[in-house]
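Can't attach files on this board, so I'm pasting raw text. These are the components:
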Amino acid sequence: MSRDFQIDDLVRENIRQLKAYSSARNEFVGEASVYLDANENPFNEPLNRYPDPLQTELKEKLAKLKLQDASNLFLGNGSDEGIDLLYRVFCEPGKDNVVIVEPTYGMYGVCAGINDVEQKKVFLNPDFNLDPRAVLDAVDAATRIIFLCAPNNPTGNAFDRELMLEIINRAPCIVVVDEAYIDFCEMPSLISLVPGRKNLVVLQTLSKAWGLAGARMGMLFAQPAIIHYLNRVKYPYNISSPNIATAIKSLDEDGQKRREWIRVILEERLRLVKELESLACVEKVYPSDANFLLVRVKNPKNIYRELMDKGIIVRDRSSVPLCDGCLRVTVGTVAENTELIEALKSREE
Ligand SMILES: *Cc1c(COP(=O)(O)O)cnc(C)c1O
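---
Top answer:
Structure tokens for the assembled complex are below.
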């Protein structure tokens, strides 16, 4: 990315001009004793109050944990909010485009459709590795964002850091690296690079390793200029106070429980690979850096249905490009994984 490149040059004109919503709570910092500014009900503490629009306390804790400055952090109602906001800040509907590396997480494409933004699709190699040349070749003057998902959903693999860096260093646009599964992966996160790379946006979430998918908490790390625009466009109170409180409680725990969950999931991932590979219906189990396995089977549609009839739900990815015959299986508890294996074994008898 050229040195004189400015984030403002990528931001939509109307967003640059936007006068953002401001509440009295934005204008006042500290603890007041009488709040008569927001037409709240004075009864039913504490839920009668609107939440902190910028989630300051939670951000400070998360930033500390991630060794980042809180000014580099945006919190969304799930990562999906961050993804949608990036479109709304950077992509002019009907004019700009994004580059999506398929097969990958569906929300990048869904948000493109919703925002009327063209998707330029580049495919991974058949071994699911990233081809930086192909990605950079797809970029044109109207490209605003490149989406990389690492480890990638649904293929399960992380990408070589050098290949991602080649894209980040050379792309004349925003590069989003979605690290939803980073805690299951041996490769280090790219968030430490955020302060030195103007165009890098890293997504993480509390939905997977933290076990808080229900609390909808997505983290977006980027330079403060990008965070500034996301804050102006988001709904003023995008994160509910129960969700903020849940996340803070989880962060205040010592992390032992979470490390144990991850240890069990990784151990079970290993066991599932071995068990699945021994089944006649399984053609290939792809290597995984995440909490799921992509498994190529004979008759994927039949197996998917049969499992569903037994109350076991997996994800049918067999119609996804490069994923012919594949089911995606999340690593569950020991008992759940055993139930899956037994169900698959019983159909072979
Ligand atoms: C599960 C997942 C997320 C998490 O999304 P949330 O909205 O934070 O729950 C993000 N990206 C990818 C690739 C995922 O698979």
